[in-house]
C-alpha cells in the first residue's frame, strides 16, 4: 500500500461497546468530548513530522496528566454528571439507520461535540445518543470477526467486533507449531516487522503474545478450547471513529484497520480468553459511572477516575493520543501484555512535493532508497551494503530489548551491539559497519540481519542509509526544516563544543558542492566530523549529492565513423580487370591507407577534408548504452579504440550504469571494483561523459 506523504490518521474518537445477557452497553469513549473533526488535525504539518522524527516514540505518562490539553480544559469547565446507559439491540436496516441519523444529527451540539439533556447530563457522543450508538455498533454474531465499516456523513465507524464462541469460550486451543531456530539463537521470522499487517506487532521484543492473539484460523468446530467465558459478556467491539479526506478515504481507513484496529482487537481477545480482562474492565467502568451518577461526581472527575482505575480505559486513551499525533502507541494490557501500535509513515522521499501537495519539511530527501520495506522491494545486492543511522540512544535501545525478553531478543541485541559505534563522542550516530560485514563478524545470516534492520526501521529506532564516506558530497537538504534550528543549535553545541558552529557548517555546505573531506581540517578531525555529518543527516539537514552520468557522442566521433565506413565501402568495391601484380599492388596501397587512417583516433577527429558540412553531425546521448544499436555500437567502438585493454574491460562492466538512472557512487559496490578504478575509467572517457548531480 502506498503511503501518504502527509501523516494524517484522521482519528476522532475511540468507543468501547459490549453486549452481555442484559443487553448492549456503551461503556467508554475517548476523548471525553470528541469533536467531528480530529483534535490533532495536521494544520502545522512540519512541526508534526518533527515530533515523530526527532523523538521517535512517545512514552506513557501518568493518566492524570495525559491527554489533550483542550479536552482537559473543556472537562474542567464541564460540571455535568455522566451515567452509563444500557439498550437493547436495534435493527440495522438502511432505512431505519438513515431516519435515526437525521433525528440525531440535527440535535448535535456543534460547540463541543456533546449535547446535553435538560438535567445537564452528558448523554450524547458525536451528536448521537449513547443508546443509539450502542445498538448501531453492536452487530449480529454472523458479522463479527470481520471488518466493520459504517459511514455516517463525514464520519467512519471502523472496528473488528469479536463474539464469544458457541461453546462459551473466546478462543480454541491451538496446536503448537514447531519453529526451526538455529543453534546460535537465530532471528525468528515471527518478529518480521517490515510493515506487513499480518506480522507480529511487538516493538523491541515487546509482548510476544501476538501469535497467540492472531486467531484468523479459528473455526467453529475446534475440538478443544481454552479461555472460559468469564462473566456473561458475549461480544465486545472497539470502534475507531475517523474523518478521512474524501480522496484518501480507502487508504486511510484500510491502514487504520490493518495496523491499529485489528491488532488491538486481537490483543484484547487474547486477554479476555485468558482471564476475562475486557469484561472485568467494562464492569469496572460501568460501576464508576453509576457511582458518579448517584454521588453527583463531575464529568471531568469521573473521566479522571476511570483513567486512573481502568487499565483498558487508559490504554484506549494512550492509543487515541499517540495515534492521533502519528506517534507509536505503547500500552500495557492486563499487567501482562505489552503492545505497540502505529500507523506506518514515510521515512524519506525522493522527489520534492509540488506546491499543490502537502509539504513536510524535515522529511529526509534522497534517492538512495535501495533498502526497501521488504525483500521484494529495493535492491538486494545494494541493501547488504547499507548501514544503520540510529535515531535513538543505542544504550536505550539495548535496555528496551533486555526488558522484554523474547526468543529473538538475543539475536536482536547482538545485532544492535554489532552496529553500535565504537566512538564515544556522541551516543546517537551511525554504525560504522555494513550489514554484510556485521553478518560475517557475528555469524548471523545476512537475511536475518536485514530482517532485524527492517524491524528497527519500522519501529522508528533507526534509518537504513548508505555508509557515510568523507569522499562523498553532501549538501544542505532542499527539504530541511530550518525553523527548528533554534532547538538543534543547543544540542549541537553540547555534543560538539569545540568544533565549528552549526550555522557556519550549514553555510559551508550551502556553497559550491565539494567532497565532505574538504570541510575537515585535518585527519585527526575526521571521526568527529563524520559524527557531525551523521547528526545532520539524522535531523534531515543534510543529504548526499550523488552523480548520474550519460555517454555523449561528439560530432567528431560521428564524422570519423562515417568517414571510416565510406573508406571501407570504397576499399571493398570490385577491382578493375587488371593483371594480378597490379591488383596486389593496389591492395597493398589500400592496406597502408587503412592503417594510416586507423593509427590514431585523434587524426580522425581532426580530419576535415571530406565533403560533409559541419551541420550534418550533432552531439547526441546514447540513452541505453548496454543495448546500443549497430550505429551506436560503432560510435562506442570508436571511443574505446585507443584505450588500454584494462580500461576497455572496466568500461564494458560499467557501461550499463551510464544511462542517468544509476548513481555513480553505487557502481563500485554493485560490480565489486574499487572506487578509484571507477574514477580512473570515467577519467579516461572524460570528454564523452555528461554528469548531473542529484540527491
Automatic annotation (TrEMBL):
Q: Name one GO cellular component term.
A: vacuolar membrane
Per the record, where are the segments of Low complexity compositional bias?
55-68, 599-608
Compositionally biased residues, Acidic residues: 211-223
Task: Tell me if Signal is a UniProt keyword of this record.
Answer: yes
Q: Which UniProt keywords apply?
A: Meiosis, Signal
Any coiled-coil ranges, and where?
none
Mode of membrane association: Peripheral membrane protein
The protein's matches in InterPro entries, at most eight in alphabetical order, are given as: HTH_NPRL3, Npr3
Q: Where is the GATOR1 complex protein NPRL3 C-terminal HTH domain?
A: 629-689
Subcellular locations according to the entry: Vacuole membrane
Biased region (Basic and acidic residues) positions are 86-95, 582-595
Which coarse location class describes where this protein primarily resides?
Answer: membrane
Annotated signal sequence range: 1-23
Q: Cite a single GO BP annotation.
A: negative regulation of TORC1 signaling
Functionally, this protein is described as follows: Mediates inactivation of the TORC1 complex in response to amino acid starvation. Required for meiotic nuclear division.
Family in the record: Belongs to the NPR3 family.
Q: What is this protein called?
A: Nitrogen permease regulator 3
**What organism is this sequence from?**
Tuber aestivum
Q: What is the lineage of its organism?
A: Eukaryota, Fungi, Dikarya, Ascomycota, Pezizomycotina
